[in-house]
Write a structure and sequence with these properties.
about 325 residues, mainly alpha, single chain
Amino acid sequence: EFMQASWDIEEVQAKGIQHLASFVKDKSAFPYLLTCTEVITLAMKTHIDSLDLQVEGCILLLEILSQALEQGVMMALDESVASCLLHTVRKHSGNEVFLSMLCTLLMMVSASEVAAENLRKVGIIPDLLSVLRRFLHNDKICFSCCAVLWSLAVSENNAEQAVLASALPVTCAVLQEHLQNGVVAESACSALWALALQGCLTDSDYEPTAALLLDALRMNPERAVLVKNGCLALASLVRLSETAALAILLDPKGSGVELIKDEYHLHLEEPGVAEALCLLMNEMVQYDEVMLDMKSQKMEKLLCEIKLQFPFS
C-alpha cells in the first residue's frame, strides 16, 4: 500500500523493494511475497530510467521465482507484468550485465504456460532475437533466450509463424557459436526442435540445420538431454523433408546413422534417448531410398537391441 500510494516517487519504490527483499530469507513470508510481483514490476516500469531500481527489482523477482520453482509453485504472471518486463528489456537493451540477469528472469517466468502466452502476446520475440544478435558471445544470455524461445514456440496454437521463422537463423548462429558449451547447445537444440515443430524452415534450411544438429551431437555426446532434444529436432526436420534425412546419411563429417548407434550405446540406461532415436528412425524409413541405406547399415540390429533393453516401454 505504501508503494502504491506514491508511484511517482522513485525513492519510495526503491525503499519498498529493499524492504520486501529483507523478507526473502523468511520462509513464512513467501506466500505474501508471491502477491507482490505486480507491484515490483510496476515500480520498475514507472521508473524505467533508474538502473539501480531495475537491478534491485530484478534480483528480488529472481529470488521470489526461485523459491516458487523450488516449492513447485507455478507463477502465472499476467499480461501487465509481461508488458513491464518487455519495457525493461527495450529500455536497457544495451546493458549486457543487466540483460544477463533479466533474461534469466524471463526464462524462469516462461516456465509457466500462461506467462509464456502473455510474453508472446506483448510481442517479446523480436526483442529476444535482437538481444541474441547483439550478445551472441554471451553464454548466459544465449542460454536463457533460447530457453524462452522454446517455451514460446512449443505451444500448439501459435499464430506467429512469420515472427518465429525469423528466429531460425539467430538460433542456428547461437548453436554454431556455442557448439562446445553443452549447456547453451542443449538450450539451442530445444529451441530448434520447437521451431521445426512449428514448420519454420524453408527448403534451403533443412540440410544446414540437420548438419548443425549432428555437429551438436558429436561435440556433446555425453549430454543425454541434448542428445534427446537434438534427435527430436532432427526427427521433426526429417518429417518435413527427405533432404534432411539424406543430410543425416551423407554428412561429410561422418555417417549420421553411425552417430545414432554410438549415442544409443553411450546412453543405454536412458529411455528418453532411446525413444527419441526410435522416433528419428521411424521418420527416416518413410523414404524408400533412406530405408535401403539404413538396412545396409544394419539398423535392424540396433532396433532389436533397443527392444530387448526396453521390453515394457
